[in-house]
Design a protein that fits this description.
This protein is of the alpha/beta class. The chain is built from 15 helices and twelve strands. The structure holds pyridoxal-5'-phosphate (PLP).
Length: 398
């Protein structure tokens, strides 16, 4: 047993997983773009015969730059292992298709990243997988849905409405029912929440967002225990083939080094903007886990070490204000995505999302509307001076 206490988050973000190049002493990680590797010992030609200690053979099976990023992410999440993918969706698809089989039941948050929501609703049933979308902020609803489930999939805070799910409670419920728990922790990042410490079996990230942090590289990751991830590496990485480019791994690794510092700034900025919006007379609602008015603020305080940089707000005339934003905003970019150093804003009308993606009714639709009303602006607070962000928003709110 190694009982050295783990290094702090900032030290791990900078150093974990990276090693100076043994040939040149280069301090920064090399980008190894080679697709193949010269070997000097016999190596099996099938990926099924490889293991973690084997030399690199072919970049889809493993790459030195990608491997360094995977080790850094595992150290940040406190996970035994990590697999990087070409995008957050490639990571999610790898985990879902790599663990579920025909006849299995998936319990999934009824509101989450639209790509995931559409994949589980439109694709998985074609393979004979039963999908049960539930409001995962409601523990009774989760408890009645988990019997017979193979996997439970939650996202917290959930895109786009910033509703939370209680990871520790859902891990306990899932395990009691013989199911495993996967958490899409993209909005939280390991700086705010470490789902594995709370009992989750798998963590998924879109590295495109906070971990990369600069809006210039798409990537994803799955983290968890070594044995299931070794199985997933063969089936879902090597055979489905959605591997991360070494160049993107290098960019994302560079971003990850400053993740703790950036999350502190994203959080502080979001708190300031949220408080400005809450006091503005043209704003009808603000949702931010760091506000005492968030319906799950107590859970946020228990489960999150910082409240991240995502907030939503509503106004009386959403489409009209969105129109002014596209023409008049000078600091914010009116654009999708999130977690970048640039602040981003996007309007999300509730009816449109119900038709395209979530198809909620009854109590589930009511819960969505409690957070989002007729529509919300989803705001990703970047690293600019919060006073400039406030001034920019003030020009379009009246
Ligand atoms: C963006 C996002 C994804 C998908 O990631 P890509 O890198 O765009 O494929 C999945 N989950 C969440 C919560 C996201 O924000």
């Amino acid at each position: 047993m190694d009982d050295t206490p783990p290094q702090g988050m900032r030290t791990r973000a900078v150093h974990a997983g990276e090693a100076p190049d043994p040939a040149t002493g280069a301090s920064a990680p090399n980008i190894v773009m080679s697709t193949t590797y010269v070997v000097d010992e016999p190596v099996a030609f099938s990926a099924l015969d490889q293991d973690e200690a084997a030399p690199f053979v072919y970049t889809r099976w493993g790459n030195p730059t990608v491997r360094q990023l995977e080790r850094k992410l595992a150290a940040l999440e406190g996970a035994e292992a990590c697999l990087a993918y070409a995008s957050g969706m490639a990571a999610s698809a790898a985990l879902l298709l790599g663990t579920l089989s025909a006849g299995d039941r998936l319990v999934v948050s009824d509101t989450n990243y639209p790509g995931t929501a559409e994949l589980v609703r439109h694709t998985l049933p074609r393979f004979g997988i039963e999908v049960a979308p539930v409001d995962t902020s409601d523990l009774e609803a989760v408890a009645s849905a988990v019997p017979g489930a193979r996997l439970v999939w939650i996202e917290t805070p959930a895109n786009p409405i910033l509703r939370l799910a209680d990871i520790a409670a859902i891990a306990a419920l899932s395990h009691r029912a013989g199911a495993e728990l996967a958490v899409d922790s993209t909005f939280a990042t390991p700086v705010a929440t470490r789902p594995i410490e709370l009992g989750a079996d798998y963590v998924v990230h879109s590295l495109t967002k906070y971990v990369g942090g600069h809006g210039d590289a798409v990537g994803g990751a799955v983290l968890g225990r070594a044995a299931p991830l070794a199985a997933l590496a063969t089936e879902a990485t090597i055979h489905y083939g959605g591997v991360l480019s070494p160049f993107n791994a290098w960019l994302i690794m560079r971003g990850a080094a400053t993740l703790p510092l950036r999350m502190a700034a994203h959080s502080a900025g979001a708190q300031q903007v949220a408080e400005f919006l809450e006091a503005h007379r043209a704003v009808t609602a603000v949702v931010y886990p760091g506000l005492a008015s968030h319906p799950q603020h107590d859970l946020a305080r228990r489960q999150m070490d910082c409240f991240s940089g995502m907030l939503t707000f509503a106004v009386a005339d959403g489409p009209g204000v969105a129109d002014r934003m596209r023409k008049q905003l000078e600091v914010f970019h009116y654009a999708v995505s999130l977690g970048h150093h640039r602040s981003l804003i996007w309007f999300m009308p509730t009816d449109e999302l119900m038709t395209s993606t979530y198809a909620l009714a009854g109590r589930q639709l009511e819960s969505y509307r409690r957070f989002a009303g007729e529509g919300i602006f989803r705001v990703s607070i970047g690293l600019e001076d919060p006073a400039d962000l406030v001034a920019d928003l003030a020009t379009v709110l009246r």
